[in-house]
Structures
1.
Amino acid sequence: DTGVSQNPRHKITKRGQNVTFRCDPISEHNRLYWYRQTLGQGPEFLTYFQNEAQLEKSRLLSDRFSAERPKGSFSTLEIQRTEQGDSAMYLCASSLPGEREEQYFGPGTRLTVT
Amino acid sequence: LAKTTQPISMDSYEGQEVNITCSHNNIATNDYITWYQQFPSQGPRFIIQGYKTKVTNEVASLFIPADRKSSTLSLPRVSLSDTAVYYCLVGENYGQNFVFGPGTRLSVLP
């Protein structure tokens, strides 16, 4: 297994456009997470799935953001009507539930909104 | 209210041992302490996790005193490639309570 993959790696879009990112987790991992990271800050939790169920969503998450994991495998994160403040690195991670639960992160998708 | 407090930055030289201390005064009985490492333009990577006393793996050691209100990540004989941001987290290892602070930016100098 090659780990968590994310596509695209970079995305430049104009304000007001919609964008969609994809995350492919490690195949046997049933938990999947999305984070957002801006320069100089740690990753900020957005949402997480266990299998296809979205179990938690950040209270700070705008309704322009939506995530899906339709078959409990890959996930997509869509941002509608992008704003310049959405410019950030979007990270995906996956894990197996357990006492010592380790999240495996992908390389991220860097979004630039112009 | 921040769950953890750690230094914003640290400098070290190659070959030295580096200790990064994290304060977590409000740690709960069931909370684990976990450290992640992040290189520029990459996602974080798990380093080590512990509950009490000392944990050691091939990369680092984690020292946790009896009161568990702090923990120290120890990196033996650092090299230039250890230059990264190190995050200390406490709590359940998933969900919105799994909070990354700004971390400690370690710079290893030649």
2.
Amino acid sequence: KNEVEQSPQNLTAQEGEFITINCSYSVGISALHWLQQHPGGGIVSLFMLSSGKKKHGRLIATINIQEKHSSLHITASHPRDSAVYICAVRVNNDMRFGAGTRLTVKP
Amino acid sequence: DSGVTQTPKHLITATGQRVTLRCSPRSGDLSVYWYQQSLDQGLQFLIQYYNGEERAKGNILERFSAQQFPDLHSELNLSSLELGDSALYFCASSPRGSSGDEQFFGPGTRLTVL
């Protein structure tokens, strides 16, 4: 079993829908990162969380340290949100990655 | 644009060869991280440097080595290349290299080993 599990693996949505991507981890962490990888391959850091909730525009990320779970929400989804979303956890000085969630938003 | 630069963008080489990938961090960032993304293994952490010193090691093979220079740029050296080394190699930088830092990723170097 992977230390970082993401669900779903693939997600297709219609433009405007509310989207949730989940990440569960089984190790003690010092921080959790949500990353976005576009089809061209570039990676953008969306959030770094150690507790609570953060919001940037239409994106919201939450983390529950006790339950070892984080969620990434996208409100009013748009085709430009189509990308792979990757959850990563910082374990001491190491970083462990989920397999990613491929999101496709159709117009 | 994250402010992190990587060269070259693409590299095609043969098995057994040696290559060097280069990374320049964002201005002011002292820490550099190297990651490998392959189709079968996903993203993996290789190694981290902070202000010229190795800080953390992940799944880095013995055939691979890295260093961070006084001007803070970093190089990842891959030797005795195998087909399985074909991957995207990302560099990221952060201000202090601590767990509380956000990391900023470069555009990556796509390595193809034939």
